[in-house]
Amino acid sequence: MGTKPSLSVTILIFACQFLYTCSSLDNTNMESSKLQIGCDMTIGEWVYDNSYPLYESSCPYISTEFNCRNNGRPDSNYENWHWRPKNCLLPRFNALDFLGKIRKKRVMLVGDSIMRNQWESLLCLVEAVIPSDRKLISSNGPVTTFHAIDFETSIEFSWAPLLVELKEEGNNQRVLHLDSIEENAKYWVGVDFLVFDSAHWWTHTGKYQSWDLYKEGRRIFTDLNPIVAYEIGITTWANWVDSNLDPNRTKVIFRSVAPRHNRDNGWQCYRKKVPTVFSGGTHRIPAQLLVITEIVKRMSFPVYLMDITTMSSLRRDGHPSIFTGDPQVRGTRHGMPTFSDCSHWCLPGVPDLWNEMLSTLV
User: Alpha-carbon torsion 186, 250, 293, 21, what sign?
Assistant: First the structure.
């Protein structure tokens, strides 16, 4: 077994974390590694492309709430946009090529409903080349698995929106254990490609907040800055990865926060039909992305940070908005919807491009 990479190797890996051609480093022989630099995936533009989408909305793995066309959305141009980096080409997703790369291996996406959004996209991208009697779905606790039988491979989704453990304890109180992860992480052991996300749940408030108390060691908090809590929780995840995974056996990718456009009940995505054009200059970086960037820098395990935040921030048109399949969300007040989902994404749509990026990393 190889030793864990030195700090200098980790920094070099981090330097190429946004590069789609960044190859896996051989931790025992730096000279044999080939780092193809020059493609910053965060800089580019959305280009209309009639050859997209790569699958139809009839894909059986799309959840009702993500199937915007079936839910009555009258326009479909949101399906036809492709991300074009400024200085290079993002390869078109090729299902057989991807399945060939993961043959006899396990791929697991871990996180919240937006990661499930991406997982369903990935299933739709590959399922058409697999005969109906050679694929199946199974479940084990929080994990749902798509099996491609002839490839002896699986593409799995593990529900863990906070990564660390959320438990119901005395007096029906929901306690978020910021330094405890083993009950979730036991499902991640033995996987060849792990893709994580965790962001949105940490900033939920009011009726959307999923916990009553925070706990770290013996200390209990009734109130804590959500970004401080996020940093503690993600540090727990990072320590688990450093201590339990072998970089010669497992590749780990952390997908950055997917932007929300839900100010004032979703007016920023309601009735939007085209991407926003990036006008240059600086843009606001979500606090969660700043935190995970710094934590990854400190890790001994080479984690690839896949930044989809900037490119997705230009796609206000890509959300379900009122076309979620729930008739109760279609009410209006003063001409605006009373509810509009500007967090999740229509399928086919934006997550397909995240998976094109993912395909270049496995």
Answer: negative
Indicate left, alpha or beta for 38 from its phi (over 0: left) and psi (-120 to 50: alpha): left
| Torsion over CA: 119, 125, 130, 131 (sign) | positive
Q: Give residue for tokens 């009553």.
A: 212
Q: What is the pLDDT of residues 259-309, one digit of tens each?
A: 888 765 456 788 899 998 766 655 678 899 999 999 999 999 999 999 999
pLDDT in tens, 56-83: 999 999 999 999 999 999 999 999 999 9
Integer Cα distance of 279 and 61 in angstroms: 36
Residue whose C-alpha is closest to residue 93's, from 317, 351, 309: 351
pTM above 0.70, yes or no: yes
For 135, the enclosing helix (H) or strand (E) is strand 135-140
Structure confidence at residue 179 (pLDDT): 96
Q: Which of 307, 303, 285, 284 is nearest to 295 (CA)?
A: 303
Q: Please check whether residue 23 is in contact with residue 33, taking contact to mean a CB–CB distance below 8 angstroms.
A: yes
The answer, yes or no, to whether residue 16 has pLDDT greater than 50, is no
Return left, alpha or beta for 266; rule: phi > 0 is left, psi -120 to 50 is alpha, else beta. left
Distance between CA 353 and CA 172 in Å, rounded? 41
Catalytically active residues are 113, 341, 344
